[in-house]
Amino acid sequence: MKIVVGGTGFVGTHLLLALTATHNRVLATYRNQDKKARTKALFDYENRSADFDKIDWRYADITDVPSLELALTGVSTLYNCSGFVSFEPKDYQKLLKINIEGTANLVNCALHLGIETFIHVSSIAALGAMPLPELPINEEAEWNRELKNSDYAISKYGAEIEVWRGEQEGLRVLIVNPGVILGIGFGTNSGRLLTKFATKNTYGFPPGTTAFVSVTDVVAAVLELEAKQLYGKRFILSAGNYSVFEIGNKIRAAAKLATVNKQLSAGMLWTASVLEYLPALFGLKRRRLSFAMVRSALSLDQYSNDSVREQLDFTFENIDTTVATMTEFYSKN
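Predicted structure:
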């Protein structure tokens, strides 16, 4: 039996859409009923209401071992789509608790209960750096503790260490490292947040570049990699490298809004972050632009998707198609 841990999340919901199309019964974990309703809303939107009834929901909190042991009983394949995303310094301990300790709990339970396969949805944030900065980052990039890694990146890297430990102790493991995930969904997700930011923003976009990928491609790649049994490896999932300036204006074009021609400079971003720091320090205002976010917004990292394309002959959806579908959806939902 297959289980999607984090079945109410962005990737988890889309993975359930894919699995229920070919399986009569799929297990999934949830933590609250409201988020489960959001998953159902997407099934309804996709005219897949009947498939939603194929899901056997089990309550679980990855930081609570007893609930995990109950939820994971009778499972042969575990897809870990759970996790916590934040770039706020105040969330450091929470990131470690959920992303590292939570993954360790899942690995330990999987080993204890005899689960055979552990498929882990990670992030490009967990990747290291190349020896030469002009080289695109690939799966062999080594983690560098000396760099100013974000708290989020540290937590995702730590989670992967736990998964590799599981492999050493007998699990079949597979890790995917998606770029920024775009696509449709109810509730908060990276696609919705970026669409809102782009359509409301008239003062400029940061110049930084990173990898972007559609959520449907993430799910398709996971299932194809599993079908080919490419275990013991990790794969970068990216439709291409784009600047936030490019993606922001693609969203604005899809929404039939005027192009924003101004790029935010490093000085502007650092100044804004510093001005937010003191009020946030005294609890007077929620910080929206942490130092880690500024470093990310200015980073010019490039990521290679050669490995997954070669192993699967995989073709990623054109990012313009992803953006157009996403922008239309969020204009109405």
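Summary: The mean pLDDT is 93.
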